[in-house]
Design goal:
- It contains three helices and no strands.
- The protein has 189 residues and is an all-alpha fold.
- The protein has one domain.
- The longest helix has 133 residues, at 25-157.
Length: 189
């Protein structure tokens, strides 16, 4: 009877409608054992490789960020150096412009002074030439006047005043007298 009871129980279970959401106990045990085997295999073989790749990627990203930060700091440093060099170049250019302006003013001043000096030399040379021409003209005039005066005096007196020494003394006395009277006339004015 025992055999019939087991068969009757199996038939009773077979006749009961089975719920599709609730698996049989033997399927549940086999599924659980398979899951543990697959999970163990994945945990032993695949998970370390996945963790290794993720760690390498994290390090690469962190390294890239660090490199980018270092490059940014270096770029800022270079930018500051360029700004300093530019400011220094501008300062140097301003200084050179100032020096050029000062040198130009000094050259202009030197040229003016040189022009003034040359003008004064030309004027002095002109005055000296005029004075020399005046003296030469006065001497020539003295000789001509002296000759005319001696000729005239000789005609008036009736004798010849050909003696050169006497002629020269007479002319000099006459002209000196004229100069004295001219200077007295200018003094009285």
């Amino acid at each position: 009877m025992e055999g019939t009871d087991v068969n009757a129980l199996i038939l009773a279970q077979a006749e009961e409608p089975q719920n599709p959401l609730v698996p049989h106990l033997d399927e549940l045990v086999i599924g659980l054992i398979a899951f543990v085997i697959v999970f163990g295999f994945l945990a032993k073989k695949l998970l370390p490789n996945i963790n290794k790749v993720l760690e390498e990627r994290r390090e690469a990203i962190e390294g890239g960020i660090e490199k980018a930060d270092a490059a940014k700091i270096e770029a800022e440093s270079v930018l500051e150096q360029y700004k300093a060099q530019l400011a220094e170049a501008r300062h140097e250019a301003a200084r050179m412009r100032q020096e050029a302006t000062e040198q130009g003013a000094a050259i202009i001043q030197e040229m003016k002074a040189e022009g003034q000096r040359q003008r004064e030399e030309i004027i002095a040379a002109g005055h000296a030439q005029i004075e020399a021409d005046r003296k030469a003209a006065a001497a020539a005039l003295r000789q001509d006047v002296g000759k005319l005066a001696t000729d005239l005096a000789g005609r008036l007196v009736g004798e010849s005043l050909e003696d050169h020494a006497r002629q020269s003394r007479t002319v000099d006395r006459f002209l000196d007298g004229l100069e004295d009277s001219a200077s007295k006339a200018e003094a009285t004015r």
